Amino acid sequence: MESLLSLAFDNLSSYDGIKIKKGLKQVEGLLAQICLSSPRPSSRQTPADPLGIQSSSESQRPPRKVLADLSSDPAFREFFKLQDGFEWNIAQRLLPTLDWLVARGGDGQYDLLIVNALDLIQGVLLLHPPSKVLFSRTMHMNLLLDLIEPVNCPAVQSATIITLVVALLDCPQNTRVFERLDGLLTITSLFKDPDTVREVKFRLTEFLYFYLTPETPSIPKASSSNQGGNGNNNGLLQRSPSKLVGAFGAGGGKRDRSVSESSGAVLSVETKKHYVDRYLPGVVDLLVKDLDTYKPFGGILS
Known about the structure:
By secondary structure, this protein is mainly α. It has a domain at 90-218 and 234-294: Leucine-rich Repeat Variant, CATH 1.25.10. Helices cover 57% and strands 0% of the residues. It has 15 helices and no strands. It starts with a helix and ends in an 8-residue tail after the last helix.
C-alpha cells in the first residue's frame, strides 16, 4: 500500500495535469479496493439470483462492503493506520494539489480534475474521520470557501458544498472556523444570487438544513495504542486542532483570515438559527419548518 501511495503522491505533486490525473486515478483505485469486496469464489448462484442468471456487468462488479465490516478488514486497518501519520495521509496530499488546480482554473479540463479531487477528499474524510482536523486550518477552509464563489462552474460549486458538509460533520471546531471566516455569508450570498443555477441552490439548501441540525461534541483523536507500539509523535492525529491552526497562521485576503485558533464549542440550534437569520431573514423559520415536517435527518430536530 505504501508503494502505491508513493507513486500516487509523486504524480499529485507534479505540475503536469496528465500526471495529476493519473495520481487521482491511483488514489481512487486504492479507495475502491478498500470499499469493494473481492468477487465471491463460490457458485454464481445467490439468493437474489437463484438460477445463476446475471448480466456480465453485474457478475464482474464486486459488491460494496458494509461499513460495519470495514473495521475487521485487514486492508482497511492498514489504510487507517497509515492515514494516522503525516507521511501517508491522503487528504493532506490532495489539498495542495487542489490548490494548484484552482490556480489553473478557468479551464474545463482542470475543472474536471478539481471535482475529482473534491470527490476523493470526501471519500478519505468518510473513511478516516480524524483527517477532518486539517479543515481546522484557516488556509484549507478558505480553499473550500473560494471554490463556492460564483466565478466557479456549478459542478465545482456543488462538489465543494458536499465536501464542506463532510468536513464539518461531527466537527464543531471546524464549524467555528467556517463561521469566523464568514462562511455563512458566502453560502447565503450564493443562495440569493439570481444567477446561481438550480442544482447549486439545491445543494445550498441541503447545506443549510445540515447546518441547522444539532451538533455532536466530538473531536477526532488518535488511538492511544498504535499498531507496532513505536510510540512516535509524528502522527497527524497527535496534534490538537488548535495547535495545527496556530502553527500555520493566517494569510491575507478578502475575508477575515485572522483566525489563529478554532474553538470546539458546541452551539445550540437556536444560536445557529440567529446566525442564518442575519443573512436570510425570514427564511430560517421555513427551513426549520421543513426539517420538522419532512424529517430529512431522521427528525432529530423534533
